[in-house]
Specification:
single chain; alpha+beta; five-stranded antiparallel β-sheet; 3 helices
Length: 243
Amino acid sequence: MPLRRVLKFTVGTGLGLCLSFLSLQAAAMPFNFVGSGGSNVDEGFPGVSFDIVASGPGAIIDLNFAVHLFNERDLLPPLTDTMAWGDLNVTLSHNDVTVQLWLPGNPGETSDLFVVLDDESTEGETLNDVLDAAGLGAAPTLPPQPFTSGGPYSPVNPNDIAASYEPYADLSAFDDVDLAGTWTLTIFDTVVPDEGDTLLGWQIFGTTDAASVPEPTTILLLSLGLAGLGFARRTAGVTGRHQ
């Protein structure tokens, strides 16, 4: 085979190899897990815990959290029939990492608390800020998420979030931690426990650095490229000896 044809063939197969390897590079892969809830979650310390067992490859790149809590007490005026969500101490734990989602503080009150927590929040303030600003007996101003009051839990669509707030401590503490394993949400009431708060559901979602799985055409292209380079090298060697 003439040397010019060998070089042309080698360049072509090399380009195929480059494209193949680019398609095999690591990519941000989305994940989304929903956890079940329970009743009477406002016990005193150490509180109650709920688990999500996540599966899938890769380490965390970005993690977000959503929760829906509900309590509508049947009380006579002037007592409020809503719940002081700022009474709660809420944490998320996984693989020896624990993040404080919000701390007890000056409690804003509402029947439903459906909120998304994200380090890169749309609102630029923490949930604690919103609860504190509302004050005792006042409803916090939370832009609406699509949900049904009192449940059931409506999973958040990561691509369609009305508003999000920052957690008390950064969720980035989970960055580079493997996704797989048990994630634990822990709740306890620091002021007046056992008022019948209900956890309707909760959710973790985001991305990991899991490598994308090559498609069959990519595998075929890579195989042909390797075979072509091998053939070109052998042909080049023969041509060189006969010149």
